[in-house]
């Protein structure tokens, strides 16, 4: 089992840290040929189940996963593009999902507790919660049950290939940032990472640069996609996209979190260096509602980060 091996033996993909441990109840698992897909349910809301799938070039064969059984999946977080209609136009979003390396039986402490199962998701409106007949825990007890770290834990390192500010719904206050984290040459496989911390968001937004190597530790979650009508009223479309939620952004350690800096980082830096002062904005949807901010363009006074990356690229 992978849990018996050191992280260094399986924790990297394409030379970058990428591993997730997710435990919960298997839901709606299906097999299409040699491809497996489904969800891991951790709370009493079927719209917040963790998506599981397999990338075409990373397919592995697993024994049948029984629906509604307790399961632990050790795997990679991969990204893909999802196109949807926001009420006025087609929009393309990055979406994250869990790609299994190993499927096993979880320990008791790796499973969500009954209190966690019945605890409403923070800031989630009650009329948007959806439930079905699957109730592994009796009763309707509500409390402050926090998801155990062992039940949903993700560690990632990669290269910043995009960043935008997130604002609270109906507010003009920055409550977080979304980072497009890239680990492969194909930008469509990038992973969306959201840091929801209003105290740090503006500082992180100002400090991060395109092409910077970073590391995050967090949880794999999903959010609703919403359509907006002519009056500005948002309505969930019934679709969700996955993302990695975290509280802080760390510097990636070369040789540990990122083993080598890939050559395609030069393309990001070239694009970043050519960006006009102030950059461009593009719409986004989120709950909390997201408001775009331009990609940050560096100045002479802010050259230390660019020098750091340039020194790493020089060794390619």
Automatic annotation (TrEMBL):
Keywords: DNA-binding. InterPro entries: NA-bd_OB-fold, Primosome_PriB/ssb. Signal peptide: none annotated. Residues 275-316 are annotated as: Disordered. This is Single-stranded DNA-binding protein. It comes from the Bacteria. The lineage of its organism: Bacteria, Pseudomonadati, Pseudomonadota, Acidithiobacillia, Acidithiobacillales. Residues 286-295 have a biased composition (Basic and acidic residues). The keyword DNA-binding applies.
């Amino acid at each position: 089992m992978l849990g018996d091996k050191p992280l260094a033996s399986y924790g990297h993909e394409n030379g970058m840290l990428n591993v997730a441990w997710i435990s919960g109840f298997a839901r709606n698992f299906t097999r299409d040929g040699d491809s497996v897909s489904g969800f891991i349910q951790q709370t009493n809301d079927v719209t917040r189940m963790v998506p599981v799938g397999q990338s075409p070039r990373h397919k592995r064969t697993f024994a049948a996963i029984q629906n509604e059984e307790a399961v632990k999946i050790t795997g990679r977080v991969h990204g893909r593009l999802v196109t949807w209609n926001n009420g006025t136009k087609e929009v393309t979003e990055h979406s994250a999902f869990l790609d299994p390396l190993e499927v096993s039986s979880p320990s008791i402490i790796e499973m969500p507790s009954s209190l966690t199962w019945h605890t409403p998701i923070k800031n989630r409106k009650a009329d948007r919660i959806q439930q079905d007949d699957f109730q592994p825990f009796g009763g309707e007890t509500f409390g402050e049950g926090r998801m155990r770290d062992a039940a949903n834990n993700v560690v990632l390192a990669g290269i910043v290939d995009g960043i935008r500010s997130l604002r609270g719904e109906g507010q003009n206050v920055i409550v977080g940032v979304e980072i497009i984290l890239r680990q492969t040459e194909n930008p469509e496989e990038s992973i969306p990472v959201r840091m929801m911390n209003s105290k740090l968001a503006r500082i992180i937004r100002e400090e991060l640069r395109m092409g910077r190597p970073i590391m995050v530790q967090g949880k794999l979650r999903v959010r609703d996609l919403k359509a907006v009508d002519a009056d500005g009223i948002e309505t969930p479309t019934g679709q969700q996209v996955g993302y990695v939620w975290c509280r802080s952004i760390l510097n990636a350690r070369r040789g540990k979190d990122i083993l080598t800096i890939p050559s395609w980082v030069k393309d990001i830096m070239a694009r970043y260096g050519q960006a006009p002062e102030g950059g461009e904005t593009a719409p986004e949807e989120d709950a909390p509602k997201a408001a775009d901010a331009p990609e940050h363009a560096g100045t002479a006074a802010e050259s230390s980060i660019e020098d750091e990356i340039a020194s790493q690229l020089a060794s390619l």
